[in-house]
Amino acid sequence: MLAVLLLCLKMGAQEAWSLKQCIAYGLQHHRNNTIYANEKLAADAMAREALAAYLPNIGITASFDNNIRLQQTVIPANVFGPEAIRGSLGQRYGTDAVIEVNQVLYDQSILTGLKANRYLGQQADLTLEQAQEAIIYNISIAYFQILVYTQQLRLLGYNNETYARQQDIYRLQVEKGVALQKDLDKVTVDFNNTASQIRVAQSNLRLAENQLKYEMGYPINEPILLHIADEIALPPLPQGAEDTFSPSARTDYRISELNIKVLETEQSRIRAEALPKLSAYFRYGAVSFSDHFKDSYDDMLPYSTVGLKLSIPVFDFFRRGAQYRQASINTANAGESLTLAGRKYIMEYENARTRLLQAEISIENDKRNVILAESVLSITDLQFRKGTTDLTDWLNTQYALKEAQNNYLGSLYLHYQARADFEKAAGTLKNFYNSLDR
User: Fold this and answer.
1) Cβ distance 73 to 88 under 8 Å?
2) Residue 367: how many CA atoms within 13 Å on its side-chain side?
């Protein structure tokens, strides 16, 4: 009891969370944000890696040779005497240390490849934005489910109270002998069915709350108090939205556009590999020779070199041609896929708009039907108490109300889901989030 009391006090001290507050929490705490932020850092690291190919390259090498048996050289006869002379040039131990600096002066393939870095960074930004849109969508759907289950519990509670009152009346009438037990049993069956529906709805509500916590990145075991009204005042749709939609409003479409630019850059890079490459180098080192190991480092003789290196590919066009052909095909396929995606997004937008308009009409009709069914039940209940109608008519009226309520709950959820699907299809989920009331 103490634990329950503390839990109630904790929840009572909490501020009720609106849909916008739940989304704001999810955008800040969902683990996907960390994953895609790391991907952005990885894209930046790839850009630095590509840039490093055009920066100075410095290396230090050192070697020590033990010439166990020196190679002999033959000096032909009549050079230093009438006979050929055999001898070894060099000494047993040789030591060499050198530092070398290389700088690429011109390599068009590297310069072209650097252009792809900008597109990769933009792709990482859009991927993060796409993840945020998914968070907004998933939290909205989970929140709408909780709203519908809450409404269902409210309506089932209303029905349960109605059956309970009727059950009490019939129980007294059965005790007085003015009503049959079967009539009481009919009301009891409906009362029990409603109680079972309430338990199912309560279970569904808890599951929906857990789903919402997961989508928010909120601790599952922590309680959360939601500000659930009968209906959420959604922001109005912009006027003329159906005439201004473009597939480029979708984040995934823009990601595909950048992917084509990356592939085109790869084509240009492969073609640029046929151009000459120019680099400069500077080398400074020291070398020593000795017949004894202990004297290997005593007398180091320095040397240095500076020069240019020109590299011209001559016979690699078969490999390069095959690579270019593959890149060209990949680019063409990406372009076709983008065209198909654009048509798909237009279709999704039109279908989502149609479903939303239909859902708005359905929810208005079903809401009026619930009000009408409640009015009919009120009149029938009054007639039943006055004895001008029978139990069958009352039960049928109550059943009609339950059907109207179920239709309304279904339309309510479809309306909210259709709105979320429309914002997703239109690429305006962030605008939807920003326009929500706090």
Assistant:
1) yes
2) 12
Joined together, the tokens standing for residue 394 give 């009352």
Residue 54 DSSP label: T
Q: Which of 286, 311, 252 is nearest to 108 (CA)?
A: 311
Q: Give the pair of three-digit tokens for residue 210.
A: 């857990």
Cα 230 from Cα 131, distance rounded (Å) = 30
**Amino acid (one-letter) located at 274:** A
- Separation of alpha carbons 406 and 371, rounded Å: 13
* Separation of alpha carbons 386 and 97, rounded Å: 114
398-411 burial code (b ≥16 CB/10 A, e <16): bebbbebbebbbeb
Contact present, 382 and 397 (Cβ < 8 Å): no
Structure tokens at 169: 């009346």
Hey, is 387 helix, strand or coil? coil
SS3 state at 94: strand
| Distance (Å, whole) CA 418 – CA 416 | 5
Beta bridge partners of 149: none
Higher pLDDT, 229 or 24: 24
Distance of alpha carbon 234 from alpha carbon 147, whole angstroms: 13
Q: What is the tens place of the pLDDT at every residue in 330-350?
A: 999 999 999 999 999 999 999
Q: Which residue has the tokens 């939303």?
A: 356
> What is the pTM assigned to this prediction?
0.81
> Two tokens at 10?
């904790």
* Model pLDDT for residues 205-253, shown as the tens digit of each residue: 999 999 999 999 999 999 989 887 766 777 777 665 556 788 999 999 9
Neighbours of 194 (CB within 10 A): 21
Contact between 30 and 216 (Cβ < 8 Å): yes
